[in-house]
Amino acid sequence: ETLDKGLEKSKSTFFDKLSKAVAGKSKVDDDVLDNLEEILVSSDVGVNTTLKIIDRIEARVEQDKYLGTTELNKILREEIAGLLSETNSGEETEYTIPANKKPYVLMVVGVNGVGKTTTIGKLAYQFKKNGFKVVLGAADTFRAAAIDQLQVWADRVDVPIVKQDMGSDPASVAFDALQSGVSQNADVIIIDTAGRLHNKVNLMNELTKVKRVMQKVIGDAPHDVLLVLDGSTGQNAFEQAKQFTAATEVTSLAVTKLDGTAKGGVVIGISDQFKIPVKYIGVGEGIEDLQVFNKYEFVDSFFK
Ligand code: GDP
Prior knowledge:
Blueprint: H1 2-6, H2 8-22, H3 30-42, H4 47-64, H5 69-85, E1 104-109, H6 116-129, E2 134-139, H7 144-157, E3 161-162, H8 170-183, E4 188-193, H9 200-214, E5 224-230, H10 235-247, E6 252-256, H11 266-274, E7 278-282, E8 290-292, H12 295-303
Parallel strand pairs: 1-4, 1-5, 2-3, 2-4, 5-6, 6-7
Antiparallel strand pairs: 7-8
Helix pairs in contact: 2-3, 3-4, 4-11, 5-12, 6-7, 8-9, 9-10, 10-11
The site of guanosine-5'-diphosphate has 19 residues, from helix 6.
Subcellular location: Cell membrane; Cytoplasm
EC number: 3.6.5.4
Membrane topology: Peripheral membrane protein
């Protein structure tokens, strides 16, 4: 029920608008489709993905010759879940890590302010709760506050943290964290990285170096590169996804702050445009307010 609560804003806006768009109409016509397009764009699904969805609905109208507005919800739900299926198996409900990769190395990237530290803290909490031994690595050495904040979460969750002074080499911290994780027999090591987007080449060089140095300890690390995006920033989130995917291979996404926004549709657009699975969604500031992304629950929360 946290998901429903968290997405209340997106949900009521999307559903209310959709109800208004079809009010007094029995069949889906050009007017309804125009309205639907507007609703999807204003929910931050993104223009490309919106047009894809509209095309699919149009194709269904053509195929069946007639589409009642009462069926529109059902079909829209199917089409959106279908789009998400291309990248998200969408069946996951638990915080798990592959058993054959131990320690599992999760490298977390994203710009400052998106909720990166909070997401790492929430993840550490969830993994620990699920019986995994967690070690954190504070490789965002650019800001003292980033190291301090991660320390606060490490204390709160009661997991070990590996850190150095501000300004030290991020790759060196990552190296230490992996060594420490291995020697402590950790199940999962979560590495925070610097959130600067000063320029693409620097970002790429830094992330590449961190990866290369980690591989000296664990040959196939990192096993997952998780990009954290702020779901309330709409097109900015798209732009950041573009920059980070150009700088490094991003293998999964966490979309935060979906509780405070009417723009939950950003999840659909980003997942579709970048073909990267959304693994987690942030629905609040609390320690429990992170959810494993489940596409069926997500889509249903829009239409309930
Ligand atoms: P970082 O700079 O990317 O590490 O960002 P922080 O983790 O420090 O988070 C920035 C702010 O966003 C903090 O006030 C967090 O409490 C808040 N925040 C993070 N995730 C969420 C979320 O899912 N929902 C809400 N409402 N706030 C969040």
